[in-house]
Design brief:
By secondary structure, the chain is mainly beta. It is 0% helix and 46% strand. The protein has one domain: GroES chaperonin (10 Kd Chaperonin, Protein Cpn10, Chain O, Roll). The radius of gyration is 14 Å and the shape is globular.
């Protein structure tokens, strides 16, 4: 597992299901912008906010640097995001 440096968090985007008027589910690749919702995987050592792994956050559009990491034995596309790009924390 990667550990972000400083005031950054490691997140994975949570896809929102997109439905058409005829109730067809569109894949995420058709979406014009990424989902704003993300799950926190790890936090940096200098995080002063109340963000812990397992929380859900809302991010600004197109935020974060993409990285690939392994979570529970599977390769996952994750993003390293500075706390300044986190709009809201949803605690679980």
């Amino acid at each position: 597992m990667l550990t972000p440096y400083g005031n950054r968090i490691l997140v994975t985007r949570i896809a929102e299901p997109r439905l058409t008027s005829s109730l067809l589910v569109l894949p995420e690749t058709i979406s014009e912008r990424p989902s704003p919702f993300a799950g926190v995987l790890a936090v940096g050592a200098h995080i002063t906010e109340d963000v812990t792994p397992g929380d859900m956050v809302v991010l600004s559009d197109y935020s974060g640097a993409p990285v690939t990491t392994e979570v529970e034995g599977q390769q996952v596309e994750a993003f390293i995001v500075p706390m300044s790009e986190v709009l809201m924390v949803i605690e679980r």
